[in-house]
Amino acid sequence: MASTPVAIVMAAGKGTRMKSERPKAITPLLGQPLTSYVLRALEAAGAAPIIVVVGHGAAEVQRALGERYLYALQAEQLGTGHAVMQAVPYLPPEATHVLIAAGDSPLITPDVFHALLETAQQTDAACVLATAVLDDPTGYGRILRAPTGDVIGVVEEKDATPDQKAIREVCTSFYCFRADALRDALPRLSNQNAQGEYYLTDTIGVLTAMGARVVAWQSPDPTLLLGVNTRWELAQVGHALRMRLLRQLCMEGVTIVDPASAYIEPTVRIGRDTVIEPNTHLRGETIVGENCTLGPDLYLQDSTVGDGCHLFRSHIVGARLDSQVSVGPFAHIRPGTVLHTGVRVGDFVEIKNVEIGEGTKVLHLTYLGDATIGKHTNIGAGTITCNYDGERKHRTVIGDGVFVGSHATLVAPLTIGDGAYIAAGSPITDDVPPESLAIARSYQTVKAGWVRKRRESKQGAGGNEQ
Ligand code: UD1
Ligand code: CA
What we know:
23-stranded parallel sheet; UDP N-Acetylglucosamine Acyltransferase, domain 1; 7-stranded mixed sheet
């Protein structure tokens, strides 16, 4: 019976090659910290506890990765072997196998950990290490094999001879150690190498020299194991990760018209038969229902969208949209907005912290802020809620079946009753009872024949007109 594997994730490095003030472990990748992908893959593989080695920016890293993990501090970053040494005191005494992963390889999947663990259990190897054969192995440690094919060591690029550099099989920084073998090997590491560091990779040579068995598990898909050391690698790994997520969505019944321009974060959920048109960005805690059309040109973040909605060429953040809602083009929906079933929002409309009832229309050139609006109401073009008096915000309440004529200025606090009519061009400062007409503008005067009379009087006075 296999025992639960424990895991160590190395995430203490500065990430010098990223050229950033921010620790590499929490570099955002599709909206999530880089290392969180590795942690989730380990969790999905059943590893517990997971010990994260932190050092550079430790407090910040710990805050971003969350409280589900144990943290070991590596105050000085003296190498990957040294990092693992800091985690050893946190290993449960009964642990038989230890999965070790670099925190900078976010494409990893739970299957790889399963395969490493299974191989370790079947072979009773002191260590199983994941290797990959790369077209361009630059930057990676190279796998050294004896003529028999047995793995006998790993040499870092900076320590490699030209012959060794030609080896294309690389160490990926994913391992499964037998706990006793790991405890034996770590104290024997030395830092006599090009970087003056304690390399975890040297445990392979140490173990084979001790006569222990090391097994290489070669990944059928080398891309799963790619690490991020530079921002260009971040971009490439990010692309691969995004394509994996888009593929998954397609398999679940979402149409993605143009994967190249669909930016969808892993936190987003989308229902069947929804179509993602080009240049659509779905971010954060966003849930989209079935049969929606999103895009082209949509930015949707931290929002919930029901079934059958049509949202395009608009910016929507922190909103809840029920079913059959349409938004766009050129609308800006801001946090705290709730649009009930069948609401239609058109062009050049900004809405903030407003609840709008079923079937209401806000089709053109409008600002609605801090308001509650009922069902089947029509908000005319150019309507403005004046919610701010320079010091405080006030609410506007508009009932069901209200007709707000074009260019109404609604000065909050204000309540407009059900079925009321607001005449076009009216600045409304007082409450309007239900079923009433409010008109607040000076009446028009028409002066019949005024133009003709003016022309005649000018001709009589000077006669110079042509
Ligand atoms: C490492 C391996 C290399 C392998 C590559 C795969 C070593 C010595 N080299 O090189 O063989 O091909 O990964 O991606 O292991 N870290 C610490 N503390 C430290 C140093 C590093 O926690 O003192 C962490 C880093 O934050 C990072 C991980 O360990 O998450 C790997 O370190 P990095 O410097 O990126 O190693 P590589 O040069 O990529
Ligand atoms: Ca790396």
